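Intended use. Records like the one below are meant for learning the mapping from a protein sequence to its folded structure. Do not use them to infer anything beyond what is encoded.
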Amino acid sequence: CTIWRWPMPNDAILDTVVEYHLGYMKGCDLLERIADALPQPIDPTICDAAVELLVREVPLHRHEQEEHLFPLLRERALPEDEIETWLQQLYAEHVADEGAAMELVEVLPDLATRTPVADPNTVGYMLRSFFEVFRRHLNWEQHLIFPLANARLTDAELEQIEAQMRIHRQGLRAGNPWAEQLSRLPGLNEQPRARR
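Structure written out for the chain above:
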């Protein structure tokens, strides 16, 4: 069984990245809430927040890691770290996650109507397939990639990565910040629970 531990251990330096990961985990909880509620119609506010996760945050996750963290980690890793194997797996998962996210974006708006979902089993399967895989992906990054980054990168390099991510997000957050959307939804402000 897998136990999801949040937050990162106290020696973690990538605070900004961990903060984003916590938000993604809350997004997975939101998708699980939708799946559990089917076949009943879903509150449009919840559907909007879910679409925002899938359209905006999943691609941001990929961009920030592949543009800022992974290249520097590749330069600094030691041969025994076998970083290339790990990164290729993460690259492949990022592509798959984005594809699955876009499929969900096509069906989520229909859930906010006033009529029960026509095929709740298929939609529920799609939702569960996405959030279970994405949770595992985040957990793998937290327990393998982040500790390696803390071990191999200097404090200055880690601070530079975080600064690049903050700058990138500041330019994109104007008007509809996803974190604020999540904070307004009841039941998603507590720490993600342990999962078995």
